[in-house]
Amino acid sequence: MSTAKSQKEKKVTTHVLQEMKSRGEKISMLTAYDFSMARIVDAAGIDVILVGDSASNVMAGHETTLPITLDQMIYHASSVVRAINRCLVVVDLPFGTYQGNSKEALTSAIRIMKESGGHAVKMEGGEEIIESIERILSAGIPVMGHLGLTPQSIYKFGTYVVRAKEEAEAKKLIEDALALEEAGCFALVLEKIPFRLAKMVAEKLSIPVIGIGAGNGVDGQVLVIHDMLGINNEFSPRFLRRYNDLYTGIKTSVEQYIDDVKSKDFPNDKEQY
Ligand code: KIV
Fold it and tell me: Which residue in the list 127, 128, 191, 234 is annotated as catalytic?
């Protein structure tokens, strides 16, 4: 087997991500929420699938990530886990399942790991959730942190604008990032913050830092798959690169199918028994 092939087939673990950071190899991460999409994303060679609570927006049509439940996250995550062979699967702990107290946080994380088969959990926040993170880690569950724009706190922020532009917030973010590393998180997501700050954090930390709207000075990138494939055509932030226009592609195909049914063109002789 060639080295390139064996690298592509080697299962991604938190340890592999650490090695990638050490040798300067960028980490690719995308969201997925269902079996069919996860199968394609894993076959393409992605390093990490995030079963994000953005499922609340793109799968269920809610305005925020707050309504999605633990049971719904487990449903999405178990569908993803059944599809993959190689990538690491990280599952968001949804709003309200870990902020209350560390015992509840541990119970939620254990349910995700046991019932979905995911490999790690992600949690939004810094210092204020360290106790919960430590308790989850003590049960042997890997934790990915998430700082910057943390959508579960949208009603506190009030808007989805770039975070940590002011010195005080940037300083707090750096302190939180160091605290998360110290606590034992295996990686950190930084969302929508100035690229210089993100680069500085990635250089300060020894764990991998994965950015979304955080520039190219970090150790990897994550996007929501519905946004990067252009399925969701109503979201166009500056940081998003669209790799396809599936909204148009799918709509055109459905319109063609409707025409073919109405005109009695489908099915033809070869498409029937
Ligand atoms: O839920 C999600 O999709 C996320 C990414 C935006 C990082 O947390």
Answer: 191
